[in-house]
Structure formats: structure tokens, C-alpha cells
Amino acid sequence: MPLPENNLLFGLAPRLTTEQREYVDAIFDYQLVMVNAKAGTGKTTLAVACAKILKKPLTYIFNPVQESMMGFRPGTQSEKESIYHQPLIDALLEINENPVQCIYNEEVLANEAIRRKVSVKRVMDSIWCYPKSPLFLRGTNLKDMTIIIDECQNFTAMELRKIFTRVHDSCKVICIGHSGQIDIPSSKSGFVPYMEHFKDQPYCKIVTLTKNFRGELANWADTFQVV
After folding, report:
1. CB distance 89 to 99 below 8 Å
2. CA 100 to centroid of chain Cα atoms
3. Tens of pLDDT along 134-156?
4. Which of 26, 54, 66, 215 is deepest in the core (most CB within 10 A)?
5. CA dist., res. 139 & res. 136, Å (int)
6. What is the pTM of this model?
């Protein structure tokens, strides 16, 4: 399915490579898209841009390797998690969205209402992004939303299973990862095994992105073979 008429993907469409165009088209055409892409390829920015066009709440699931230590760090839960929202924040800025007005955060929500001298409900009207740790997904239902699972290569197969088995057919799911940048023992990563598991399903599309747009240094660094 092509992009809606008069929508240029927030100015990104004219600059898309063939691979990126396939990725964007897949998001609109399939329920599940799994993208294996190295750093700097625009995978998160394009996923967030598409989520905005789809006009459903975005659940952004992150999984830092250090997450098991989250309960021992100072601050509220929102404060502990907020440092892991940077890829989402960067993507929103790329499509000219204000992260403060888009991302749900209890503390920021209250402060923004005070600053603007409006009700919390009024501030909530502009919020459509909901970052969520997989630690708090057990027992939940994922319905009527776009779901981005970022840094998917750092999820174990059991963690991905916990997410996938809660997804209803009214959702779009975009799994973003890179099989070359796994920060947990590679044998535990569920990213590649789940790509294999889903690859022949009619509702799933597997895509790759290979061009790093960050520049010469980043591209050369990516060729280093880590033993």
C-alpha cells in the first residue's frame, strides 16, 4: 500500500532508499515487520513516522541490558526508565514532534499542566507515545496500538514470547534489531530465532537495511570484527 496521498512521511519520503521504501511499505501492508538493520539506517525514525500516520497509540518497548538492576537505582520508575527513551525522542524530533507533548510520563505530565495552566486531561490530549518496559507486560493485553520493540536483539526468546503472546490482531508490530550488535550472550537472543519462526507467515515481512547514514567514521567502525 503506498503512503497516503499528500503525505511525504514528514519530509522523509523523497530521500528514502529502495530498502527503506520496502521497510515503510511493509509497515503499512503487514501486521508484523521484523527489520534486521545496522546502526544509523533510520530504522527507528521511520517506524515512529509510520506509527504517527497510522494514528493509533504507540507502545514503545525497550529492553536495556541493565534492566534487571532498574529496581536498585534511585528515582521514580519513570525517572529510571526515561534514560532509555532517547531513540524514541530522537525519532520524534526528526518528524518535528515535541517529545514532551507526545510521550507519557507522569512527572512531566503534571509539570506541563502547571506550566501551561491547563488540566492534566488537556495535556493528555496530545500524548500518543507510551514507553514500556517488558518487566511490566505480564498479564496485560496489547490491543488497538502500534508496537515498536526496539533493540530487539537484546531480548531473550522468552522475553519476546511474553510480548508476542499478548498481541491482538488489531495491532501493528515492528521489531527493530541488528544481529551484529547483540549485547547479551548471542545464544540467548531471541531475535534471529523468532525471525526464522515467523518468516513464512503471511502477516509477517522480514526486511534488512544496510546503509548507515551517520558518516564515514561510523561506517568504518561498523566493519570492525569483534571477537
Report:
1. yes
2. 17
3. 877 777 899 999 999 999 999 99
4. 26
5. 8
6. 0.88
Distance separating alpha carbons of residues 174 and 180, to the nearest angstrom: 18
170-188 pLDDT, tens digit each: 999 999 999 999 989 999 9
Per-residue confidence (pLDDT) for residue 222, from 0 to 100:
81
Q: What is the mean pLDDT of residues 80-109?
A: 87
pLDDT-above-90 percentage for the chain: 61
Residue 45, C-alpha cell as written in the block: 525514525
Quote the CA–CA distance of 129 and 139 in Å, as a whole number.
Answer: 21
β-pairing verdict for 146-149 and 172-177: parallel
Is the pLDDT at 5 greater than 50? The verdict is no
Burial classification of residue 60, based on how many CB atoms lie within 10 Å of its CB (0-12 exposed, 13-18 middle, 19 or more buried) = buried
Torsion of CA 115, 89, 82, 184, to 10 degrees: 180
C-alpha distances in angstroms, 146 versus 20, 114, 121, 174, 203?
19, 30, 22, 8, 15
Cα(86)–Cα(218) distance, rounded to whole angstroms? Answer: 19
C-alpha to C-alpha distances, 97 to 46, 49, 65, 81, nearest whole angstrom: 13, 10, 28, 20
CA distances from 163 to 36, 134, 135, 141 (A): 18, 7, 10, 9
Q: Which residue has the higher pLDDT, 28 or 71?
A: 28
**Measured between alpha carbons, how far apart are the two ends of the chain, in Å?**
42
